[in-house]
User: What shape does this take?
Amino acid sequence: MPRPIAARRLHDILESVETAKSVSVEELADRFGVSRETIRRDLKALAAQGRLDIVHGGALKRGVGEPPYAERAMENAAGKAAIGRAAAAMVEPGMVVLLDSGSTTHEIAAALAKAPPSDVTVIATSLRDALTLTRAGVKVTVLGGEVDPDDEATVGLDVIAALPRYRVDLAFVGIGGVTPDGDVTVFSRVAAETRAVMLDCAARGFYVADSSKFGRAGVARIAPKRAPEALVVDAAPPARMQTGLAAHGVACIVADAL
Assistant: This one.
């Protein structure tokens, strides 16, 4: 049985997750005056009871995290395909393009594969995207790292370390959600850092997200040193969200659904 102090801490952690929808290990360790390892053990215990979901750097309210790739690929497939076509249309001959992993960015790879511009190089983390493009005759570089079994893409510190070595013309970065106030978020701190570095190493960067991501909030904000040019979407976000995005220097490009 948990000791009284530990049991009280577990109760307070659950209350925090319920209220804020997400918590970080660092914040909880500071709040309770215990080590990060103790907090990680607490979160694992609560996750084993089915009371929250663990993500890199913290935890989310049960069911708030990113759904499996197969589910995401089916959600608003037509909208994601429209985004893919709009993003692929920006690619010109001779460019170096950086593609994040995910169901929306995969549609960019699929659109590029149908009519690849000449002498284009794609830098990818997704094994799916790499195969799709390689089979279409596109030159592909895959960034090394640990492979996420669901996304089938490389993740982690090795990916982050490799990114600044490349010269990139265009970067297309997926997101977990956009809050009503226009904060662009993902579901782990590592994912947020990876996407920030992706945007910072490109001459032109873009977020890509279909309208199902409107109003969703992950545990971590994506915070590049300079804002991407735009968020490419399949439908216009609500006015308040657009205002918030604009305040961060991010415009909105609505893809043609035809």
The first strand starts at residue 22 and ends at 24. The chain has a mean pLDDT of 90. The chain is about 40% helix and 20% strand. The two ends are 59 Å apart (CA to CA).
